Amino acid sequence: MGVLNGKVAIVTGASRGIGRAIAEAFAREGARVMICGRKQETLDLVAAEIGPSVKAIACHVGRADQIDRMVAFTTKELGPVDILVNNAATNISFGPCLEIDESQFDKMIEINLKSAFRLVKAVAPGMCERGSGSIINIASIAGLRPQLYSLLYSMTKAALIMMTQSYALELGSKGVRVNAIAPGLIQTALSEHYWKDEVQRESVLEKQPIQRLGQPSDIAELALLLASEKGSYITGQTLTVDGGFLLPGL
Ligand SMILES: NC(=O)c1ccc[n+]([C@@H]2O[C@H](COP(=O)([O-])OP(=O)(O)OC[C@H]3O[C@@H](n4cnc5c(N)ncnc54)[C@H](OP(=O)(O)O)[C@@H]3O)[C@@H](O)[C@H]2O)c1
């Protein structure tokens, strides 16, 4: 008997990396899971690899109409949504802050931030009516400390952390918990710049008490706790999973 038996979850950005690992953990624990990303073919392959309790729909999370379509499809195929993981994000504006233009600003807000706002609006009213739900926002340690060449990424992640706290404050009395996870360096496509090159990788690892790269499963196991009844007294939190990277040393 899995800890998510009978639950329905949406995981955005689950064609690879952290989102995929979360979908795998949720399915292993008995949930029916809708995964999304931008390419239906890739998603279909991933869903087939994980198992029959996983369905897939292409959804660009920066597009309101596609979010509505995904939520409607999930409800029709799997039932009302109990768990939402806002995981999909991008970092298209990596580089010097004075070279960023307005179109990049708008796009980063749309994909990294407004997507979570739209998805919460689409699924949380049903959670409130049923008196239960768990929303998990994947933030970043870059939302807790500035990161060089990541102005917009850090800014959107910081806002996602405050969004988490604000929703948690209002929705807790209705049975809906809202938490964020702030990963440190996790070995995925998004963070290649920080781990592929040996010098770069060592400069991160030398600051970490835990001397290894984080893996998507490190985030997935925490998401599982937050999604399940085992995390029923946790809300409004941002839990850092970074191998101790942010610990201030003397
Ligand atoms: N890896 C790290 O070190 C790290 C650290 C801190 C925080 N995070 C956060 O963890 C989350 C997952 O990152 P990751 O490292 O797993 O990245 P990843 O391996 O690049 O995966 C990103 C996923 O998001 C999807 N995606 C990207 N843009 C999308 C869009 N507009 N609409 C829908 N789906 C979209 C991608 O699929 P398609 O490209 O097929 O659409 C993919 O499935 C992100 O929120 C990221 O900010 C990661």
Molecular structure report:
- The chain is an alpha/beta fold and 250 residues long.
- It has a single domain (8-239), classed as 3-Layer(aba) Sandwich (Rossmann fold).
- Helix content is 44%, strand content 15%.
- The protein contains eight helices and seven strands; from the N terminus they run βαβαβαβαβαβαααβ.
- A seven-stranded parallel β-sheet has the order 3-2-1-4-5-6-7, sandwiched between helices.
- α4 links the parallel β4 and β5.
- α1 (17-28) packs across α8 (216-227).
- It starts with 7 loop residues before the first strand and ends in a 9-residue tail after the last strand.
- NADP nicotinamide-adenine-dinucleotide phosphate is lined by residues 12-19, 36-39, 42, 59-62, 87-90, 111, 138, 140, 183, 185-186, 188-191.
- NADP nicotinamide-adenine-dinucleotide phosphate binds at residues 12-19, 36-39, 42, 59-62, 87-90, 111, 138, 140, 183, 185-186, 188-191.
Give a brief rundown of this model.
It is built from 8 helices and 7 strands; from the N terminus they run βαβαβαβαβαβαααβ.
As a percent range, the share of helical residues equals 40-55%
> Runs with pLDDT <50, length 5+?
none
Number of strands: 7
Considering the protein shown, what is the CATH homologous superfamily? NAD(P)-binding Rossmann-like Domain
CATH fold name, please?
Rossmann fold
